[in-house]
Amino acid sequence: MSRINLSQDIKSLSDFRANAASYVQNIKRTKRPMVITQNGKSSAVIMDVNEYESLLEKIDLLQDIQIARQQLADGKGIDHDAAKEMILKKIGQ
Fold first, then answer.
1. pLDDT in tens, 27-75
2. In a domain, 32, yes or no
3. Residues 9/44, Cβ–Cβ less than 8 Å
4. Is residue 15 part of a domain?
5. Which residues, at least 6 apart from 70, have a Cβ–Cβ distance to it below 8 Å?
6. Residue 21 lies in a domain
7. CA 68 to CA 55: how far, in whole Å?
8. Cα–chain-centroid distance for residue 58?
Protein backbone atom coordinates (compact mmCIF):
# COMPACT_ATOMS: atom_id res chain seq x y z
CA MET A 1 0.00 0.00 0.00
CA SER A 2 1.31 3.42 -0.90
CA ARG A 3 1.67 5.99 1.83
CA ILE A 4 -0.90 8.71 2.15
CA ASN A 5 -0.05 12.01 0.51
CA LEU A 6 -1.00 14.60 3.12
CA SER A 7 -1.52 17.36 0.57
CA GLN A 8 -3.83 15.30 -1.66
CA ASP A 9 -5.43 12.51 0.34
CA ILE A 10 -7.29 14.28 3.12
CA LYS A 11 -10.76 15.45 2.14
CA SER A 12 -13.78 16.78 3.97
CA LEU A 13 -16.92 14.68 3.94
CA SER A 14 -18.79 17.32 1.93
CA ASP A 15 -15.97 17.47 -0.65
CA PHE A 16 -15.92 13.67 -0.85
CA ARG A 17 -19.70 13.55 -1.38
CA ALA A 18 -19.46 16.07 -4.22
CA ASN A 19 -16.60 14.20 -5.95
CA ALA A 20 -16.98 10.61 -4.77
CA ALA A 21 -16.66 8.93 -8.17
CA SER A 22 -13.43 10.69 -9.10
CA TYR A 23 -11.95 10.17 -5.63
CA VAL A 24 -12.71 6.44 -5.73
CA GLN A 25 -11.07 6.22 -9.16
CA ASN A 26 -8.02 8.03 -7.76
CA ILE A 27 -7.84 5.65 -4.79
CA LYS A 28 -7.92 2.67 -7.15
CA ARG A 29 -5.31 4.21 -9.47
CA THR A 30 -2.83 5.38 -6.83
CA LYS A 31 -3.44 2.60 -4.28
CA ARG A 32 -3.25 5.32 -1.62
CA PRO A 33 -5.89 5.54 1.10
CA MET A 34 -7.94 8.69 1.62
CA VAL A 35 -8.78 10.21 4.99
CA ILE A 36 -12.25 11.74 5.27
CA THR A 37 -12.74 14.49 7.81
CA GLN A 38 -15.90 15.56 9.53
CA ASN A 39 -16.07 18.84 11.44
CA GLY A 40 -12.33 19.26 10.88
CA LYS A 41 -11.37 15.93 12.48
CA SER A 42 -10.40 12.66 10.83
CA SER A 43 -13.43 10.40 10.69
CA ALA A 44 -12.84 7.56 8.20
CA VAL A 45 -10.31 6.02 5.85
CA ILE A 46 -11.26 4.82 2.39
CA MET A 47 -8.94 2.44 0.60
CA ASP A 48 -8.77 0.13 -2.39
CA VAL A 49 -10.29 -3.31 -1.72
CA ASN A 50 -7.22 -5.21 -2.92
CA GLU A 51 -4.97 -3.08 -0.73
CA TYR A 52 -7.29 -3.72 2.23
CA GLU A 53 -7.19 -7.49 1.68
CA SER A 54 -3.41 -7.37 1.39
CA LEU A 55 -3.22 -5.43 4.64
CA LEU A 56 -5.39 -8.04 6.40
CA GLU A 57 -3.13 -10.83 5.12
CA LYS A 58 -0.09 -9.02 6.50
CA ILE A 59 -1.80 -8.57 9.87
CA ASP A 60 -2.68 -12.29 9.95
CA LEU A 61 0.92 -13.21 9.18
CA LEU A 62 2.26 -10.90 11.88
CA GLN A 63 -0.17 -12.41 14.39
CA ASP A 64 0.98 -15.92 13.43
CA ILE A 65 4.61 -14.86 13.89
CA GLN A 66 3.81 -13.36 17.30
CA ILE A 67 2.06 -16.58 18.40
CA ALA A 68 5.01 -18.66 17.18
CA ARG A 69 7.49 -16.44 19.01
CA GLN A 70 5.49 -16.75 22.21
CA GLN A 71 5.28 -20.53 21.83
CA LEU A 72 9.06 -20.70 21.38
CA ALA A 73 9.56 -18.48 24.42
CA ASP A 74 7.29 -20.83 26.41
CA GLY A 75 9.42 -23.82 25.36
CA LYS A 76 6.75 -25.28 23.09
CA GLY A 77 8.89 -25.36 19.96
CA ILE A 78 10.75 -28.28 18.43
CA ASP A 79 14.12 -28.24 16.73
CA HIS A 80 14.65 -28.51 12.98
CA ASP A 81 15.62 -32.19 12.93
CA ALA A 82 12.55 -33.22 14.95
CA ALA A 83 10.26 -31.17 12.72
CA LYS A 84 11.81 -32.67 9.59
CA GLU A 85 11.38 -36.18 10.97
CA MET A 86 7.71 -35.52 11.80
CA ILE A 87 7.00 -34.17 8.33
CA LEU A 88 8.77 -37.02 6.57
CA LYS A 89 6.82 -39.52 8.67
CA LYS A 90 3.52 -37.86 7.75
CA ILE A 91 4.25 -37.93 4.03
CA GLY A 92 5.49 -41.51 4.23
CA GLN A 93 9.19 -41.16 3.43
1. 999 999 999 999 999 999 999 999 999 999 999 999 999 999 999 999 9
2. yes
3. no
4. yes
5. none
6. yes
7. 20
8. 5
